[in-house]
Structure formats: structure tokens, C-alpha cells
Q: What sequence folds into this?
């Protein structure tokens, strides 16, 4: 999970007049003393050798109590020339355009992008197209083509080091005796895994019927009941009366299965994950983040023409988009309609079900990272897109890891420590 503190910065400065070293200071709203930066590496060519001062015209206070006052680490990407679309309207107007699915007025602008990896806070990002920038004096040195190639390689190395510290490098070898992260840690989690396997078998049967008969949302509940009864007869099970909590879980599962059934019938339609009623009901920020990324990646790949219509189903770029898209669906099921951390952790009655979905979301995100590894090996898309996409996926994956840990702690507190 990245620290994104651009809204809370009042002003700051970075100094690269000494080659291979970036020093600086950040003044943050609510803090008297500045944060000190001591980083190894260089910015992109536009800022290499310079001292840059920047000011936020509209700083906002925020919870940055865990952000260290001394940031020592390595440079990621640092540039003042990243092109972004800058809206020419207020935030409220932007939401109205977005809800109506209308294009909003905008122009291309330069965005300041400061990224580094510190030993205390991991990845830190400051990104804004609204800061006031000022280059102070002449450059202390000039970046050559060779210097630039070296810096890009070091950026990639810093990112990989960050992934490895989080245990998220998709291709990293795992010790044979390492614990399987998906193995249950409590009796409640084990029971939820068993129930999920039953549901997965039921889903397979439902999906097969949908493929044969054609998908009609009105028929889904009927197909669900028929296949569930058939499966229970085969097992010799009676259909128990469901509690209100179990019925709520079932309805949520049906909703999610409707979405997944759509994916079984067509290629990735990333816009579906936005939902027609996105602005009528609140969503958890992590769900929004993952779904927004799925839509962004879908359009990146399609608009750039990186994926030919005849491309195989197992194409790495498909794996990336599909992985993030499916993770968004699982997170929506896990986090429901929670719109902030006040709705967390979940009620113990449904925590096992939530945990199952979070683990599946984690698996889909790791599939996307495997796709990124293959895209790196095959030189697909462009290096900058691969680099930043990988970091965005890692950000989401890190938050999912935290949620899994919190739910497991909740289940253990319920008395399952002896499992």
C-alpha cells in the first residue's frame, strides 16, 4: 500500500544538484517540523541536476501520524513532466458528468510526480497537476543518455525490491516449508472454505447451464434453486432453513454470480464493474480503486491497440485485465456496501464468508502480477505502462493482505485459536 500524501503537503523542495543523491524537505499540514528526505538515485531528465521548489495552493489536514519524519531510501520515478488530463470543472461538476456518462471539459497539463521507497514507510507517492513549481537556479550536472538508461533500470530494481519485501513478487521462489497463505488459520475459516468449495461446484453447474441455455438474469434464481436441489439430493442432504444472515449471504452470492456469469458469455467488459447505480449507493474505497483500475486497464489495452482481436485467451494482457476485474468483483462481495473503515471489521457471523472472498481477490491480483511478469518477458505494451500498472496492482494487493490479516485476527478472537 502506497502512502499518497499530495493533499496534505503545504510546500516542499527536492535537490538533485549532487548526482545520485536526492535530498529534500516536506512541510505537511498539522506538523511543525518538516519531513527530511535522503534518497539514493536521480529524477527523470527534466529535473535531473536541479533543485525544485513546490507549493500546494490548497493543502488539507489528514492522518499522517504513521509517516516518518525522516525518509531514507531510494528514488522511484521523479518528474515534473508527466502528462495528465486536468478537469476544467469543480469536483461536484465532475461527479455529475461522470454519473451521466458524459465527457467532462479538460486539458492536458503537466503533473508533478514524486515517488520513492523508504525503509520506514515503503512506497511514497506525491502526485498533483495543481502544485506551483519553481526551478531554483542552474543545474548542478546534466543527465546523459547513458545516465537516463541507468536510472530507469534502477527505478525498476527499486520497485522489485519493494515487492520482495512485501512478499509479493509474483515470480519469486518460495521455500518448500513455507506456510500456504490460503490455508485456514481457524475452524471458522476452514468451515467457510468448505462451504465455498460447495458453492464453487454449484457455480460450475450453473455456468454450464447458462452456456447451454443462454444467460437471462430473470432465470438465474430458478437455475440456482434447481441445481442446488440436485446437488443436495446427490449428497443426501436436507435443505436446512436459512437464518436471516445466511439468506443475506445467499442473495449477495447470487448478485456476484450474475456478474461472473456475464463474464462467462463475453470478453472482458470492464465498464460493467462500474455499475449503473455507482453514484446512488456508497462503495468501499478499495472496491472503487480496484474497479477504476480495471476500467482504466481495459481502455489502455484497447485504445492503444496492444491486444489484437485474434489474440489467444491466455494472452498476458488479458490475464492482467481479467485478474484486476475479477478481483474487483470479489472485493465488492467481501466488502459489501461499506463506504469507510467505520464498517470494518465485519460481523463475526459473516467474517468467514468475507475472508473467502478476500483470499480469492488476492489470488486474482496475483494472477494479474503473473501476467505482468509475462508481459515484461515478451516486451508487451510499453515499459512505463507496465511499471506503473504493476505498482497500482501491488497497492491494492497490499491492502487486501491487511484486510485478510484483520479478519483472521477477528476469527481467532472468537475462540478458534486451538484449530
A:
Amino acid at each position: 500500500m502506497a502512502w499518497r500524501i499530495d493533499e496534505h503537503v503545504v510546500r516542499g523542495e527536492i535537490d538533485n544538484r549532487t548526482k545520485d543523491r536526492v535530498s529534500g524537505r516536506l512541510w505537511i499540514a498539522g506538523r511543525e517540523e518538516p519531513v527530511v528526505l535522503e534518497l539514493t538515485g536521480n529524477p527523470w531528465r527534466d529535473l535531473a541536476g536541479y533543485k525544485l521548489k513546490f507549493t500546494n495552493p490548497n493543502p488539507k489536514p489528514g492522518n499522517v501520524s504513521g509517516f516518518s519524519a525522516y525518509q531514507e531510501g531510494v528514488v522511484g520515478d521523479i518528474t515534473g513532466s508527466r502528462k495528465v488530463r486536468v478537469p476544467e470543472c469543480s469536483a461536484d461538476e465532475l461527479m455529475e458528468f461522470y454519473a451521466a456518462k458524459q465527457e467532462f471539459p479538460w486539458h492536458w497539463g503537466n503533473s508533478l510526480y514524486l515517488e520513492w521507497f523508504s525503509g520506514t514507510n515503503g512506497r511514497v507517492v506525491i502526485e498533483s497537476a495543481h502544485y506551483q513549481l519553481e526551478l531554483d537556479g542552474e543545474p548542478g550536472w546534466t543527465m546523459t543518455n547513458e545516465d537516463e538508461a541507468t536510472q530507469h533500470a534502477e527505478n525498476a530494481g527499486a520497485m522489485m525490491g519493494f515487492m520482495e519485501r512485501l512478499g509479493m513478487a509474483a515470480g519469486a521462489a518460495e521455500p518448500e516449508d513455507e506456510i500456504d497463505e490460503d490455508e485456514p488459520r481457524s475452524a471458522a475459516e476452514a468451515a467457510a472454505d468448505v462451504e465455498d468449495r460447495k458453492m464453487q461446484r454449484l457455480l460450475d453447474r450453473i455456468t454450464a447451464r447458462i452456456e447451454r441455455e443462454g444467460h437471462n438474469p430473470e432465470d438465474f434464481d430458478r437455475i440456482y434453486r434447481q441445481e442446488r436441489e440436485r446437488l443436495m439430493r446427490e449428497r443426501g442432504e436436507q435443505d436446512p432453513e436459512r437464518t436471516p444472515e445466511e439468506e443475506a449471504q445467499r442473495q449477495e452470492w447470487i448478485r456476484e454470480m450474475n456478474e461472473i456469469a456475464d463474464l462467462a458469455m463475453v470478453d472482458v467488459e470492464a465498464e460493467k464493474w462500474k455499475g449503473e447505480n455507482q453514484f446512488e449507493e456508497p462503495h468501499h474505497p478499495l472496491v472503487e480503486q480496484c474497479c477504476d483500475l480495471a476500467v482504466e486497464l481495459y481502455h489502455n489495452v484497447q485504445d492503444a491497440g496492444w491486444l489484437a482481436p485474434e489474440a489467444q485467451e491466455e494472452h498476458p494482457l488479458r490475464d492482467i485485465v481479467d485478474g484486476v476485474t475479477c478481483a474487483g468483483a470479489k472485493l465488492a462481495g467481501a466488502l459489501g456496501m461499506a463506504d469507510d473503515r467505520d464498517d470494518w471489521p465485519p460481523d463475526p457471523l459473516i467474517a468467514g464468508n468475507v475472508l473467502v472472498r478476500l483470499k480469492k481477490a488476492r489470488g486474482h491480483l496475483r494472477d494479474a502480477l503473473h501476467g505482468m511478469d509475462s508481459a515484461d518477458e515478451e516486451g508487451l505494451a510499453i515499459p512505463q505502462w507496465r511499471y506503473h500498472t504493476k505498482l497500482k496492482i501491488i497497492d491494492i494487493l497490499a491492502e487486501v493482505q491487511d484486510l485478510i490479516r484483520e479478519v483472521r485476527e477477528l476469527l481467532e478472537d472468537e475462540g478458534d485459536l486451538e484449530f
Q: What stands out?
A: The chain has two domains: 3-166, 187-416. Confidence is low (pLDDT under 50) at residues 169-178, 260-282. Residues 186 and 415 are 9 Å apart (CA to CA). DSSP finds nine helices and nine strands in the chain.
